[in-house]
């Protein structure tokens, strides 16, 4: 992965300092080739490998997490969770039921998990494979059945 | 989409690359929930922020704010920098935000044999 170049200013042997744009950095999230950070004003930045610079992403966030299931953020003012829909190129609102007020989201390989620090409660979204049977009646009364898997989000257990 | 409640109480959480879940409590205790498991296993050490990717697990020590990396048996120090946030990608590259709100990249040695499973 092409990463931000090391800044020549203050650094320690173990940690180099990277350039940043915007206000003071508040948090950072990486997954595979994606690297995001957000600043204390809520601006979200993505490392653009092609341009070798940080580019501001849409949205105002208090926290972000990138993983297999894409980019997840908490809105800065409300803490409402959203996920980035790459197809529609827009933020998609995610349920906060049960009530979560101080959410922390983390997107891993298989799961998206969350912690509500107000209640110290933990949550997980998990993919569920659902089998749907479609009947074609071209040769009624002998239906042809086809099976296919549809992946969708659902409640566990 | 809706959320399924997990057992236990914690304030920070991370999902690893094998279906395992890591969490830290308000007191800084660290726990690991195995894939499809229901019982959190205590992990040695203390941490506030915790982050995972693939087989990599990193966290910030509660008392010092210094970065640490899980070796499978214990936490390895990631140097003396005091940090407020940390992340790792699947290749083991580690970035952090320090107490001066600068973005930092760990330049030390990569994990020799990252082992995500604590037991």
Secondary-structure topology with pairs:
The complex is a heterodimer of chains A (157) and B (119).
Chain A: E1 15-18, E2 25-31, E3 34-39, E4 43-48, E5 53-67, E6 70-75, E7 81-85, E8 90-93, E9 103-107, E10 112-116, E11 121-136, E12 144-154
Antiparallel strand pairs in A: 2-3, 3-4, 4-5, 5-6, 6-7, 7-8, 9-10, 10-11, 11-12
Chain B: E1 4-6, E2 12-15, E3 21-24, E4 29-33, E5 41-46, E6 50-53, E7 56-60, E8 66-70, E9 75-88, E10 94-98, E11 103-106
Antiparallel strand pairs in B: 2-3, 3-4, 4-5, 6-7, 7-8, 8-9, 9-10, 10-11
Tell me about this structure.
The complex is a heterodimer of chains A (157) and B (119). Chain A is mainly β and 157 residues long. Chain A contains no helices and twelve strands. Chain B has 119 residues and is mainly beta. Chains A and B meet through strand 1, strand 2, strand 3, strand 9 and strand 10 of A and strand 1, strand 2, strand 6, strand 9 and strand 10 of B. Strand 1 of chain A pairs antiparallel with strand 11 of chain B.
User: Which structural class do you get from the secondary structure elements of chain A?
Assistant: mainly beta
**What gyration radius of chain A follows from the Cα positions, in whole Å?**
21 Å
Strand order of the largest sheet of chain A: 2-3-4-5-6-7-8
Round the mean pLDDT of chain B to the nearest integer and report it. 89
Straight-line distance between termini of chain A:
38 Å
Number of strands of chain B: 11
* pLDDT < 50 stretches of chain A: 1-11, 129-157
Rg of chain B computed from alpha carbons, rounded to a whole number of angstroms? 14 Å
């Amino acid at each position: 992965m092409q990463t931000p170049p090391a800044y020549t200013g203050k650094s320690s042997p173990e940690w180099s300092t990277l350039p940043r744009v915007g206000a003071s950095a508040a948090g950072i999230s990486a997954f595979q080739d994606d690297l995001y950070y957000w600043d204390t004003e809520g601006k979200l930045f993505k490392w653009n490998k092609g341009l070798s610079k940080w580019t501001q992403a849409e949205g105002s966030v208090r926290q972000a997490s990138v993983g297999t299931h894409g980019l997840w953020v908490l809105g800065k003012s409300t803490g409402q969770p959203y996920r980035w829909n790459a197809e529609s190129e827009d933020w998609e609102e995610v349920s906060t039921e049960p009530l979560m007020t101080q959410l922390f989201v983390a997107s891993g390989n298989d799961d998206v998990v969350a912690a509500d620090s107000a209640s110290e409660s933990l949550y997980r979204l998990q993919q569920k494979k659902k089998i749907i049977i479609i009947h074609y009646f071209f040769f009624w009364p002998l239906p042809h059945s086809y099976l296919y898997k549809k992946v969708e989000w659902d409640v566990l257990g | 989409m809706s959320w399924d409640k997990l057992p236990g109480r914690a304030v920070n959480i991370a999902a690893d690359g094998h279906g395992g879940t890591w969490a830290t409590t308000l007191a800084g205790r660290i726990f690991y929930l195995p894939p499809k498991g229901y019982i959190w296993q205590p992990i040695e050490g203390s941490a506030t922020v915790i982050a995972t990717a693939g087989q990599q697990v990193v966290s910030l020590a509660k008392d010092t704010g210094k970065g640490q990396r899980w070796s499978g048996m214990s936490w390895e120090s990631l140097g003396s920098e005091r940090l407020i946030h940390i992340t790792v990608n699947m290749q083991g590259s580690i970035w952090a935000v320090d107490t001066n709100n600068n973005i930092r990249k760990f330049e030390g040695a990569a994990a020799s044999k990252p082992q995500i499973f604590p037991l």
